[in-house]
Amino acid sequence: MEMVGFAMAEGVQEGWWVAVRVFDLDSRNLFNSSDTCDPPVPIVPYDVMVITWAILYWSSFFGCWIVYPLLISYVDMAEFHVSEKLSGAIKENILVYRYC
Asked: Which residues face 4 on adjacent strands?
């Protein structure tokens, strides 16, 4: 089953038409005619996927809430020595997170 329709898209100049093509995307008709399909085979094992998700989630969490704010405060500090800039950035972030 294939249908072709025409519609005027928003933002298109007057006189221009956009063709919209609608396909029947039923996978039983595209690949085979049987009603049953083989279950999908996962590419990555479930355990590896869970561990990878946890590493990505927690690293982005700590990056967004600890590392990046410390780096921003470190750059904004008006001190000359690294240790003073770092301690000032840590103190500033402690004060900010204290009131959040």
From this structure: 21
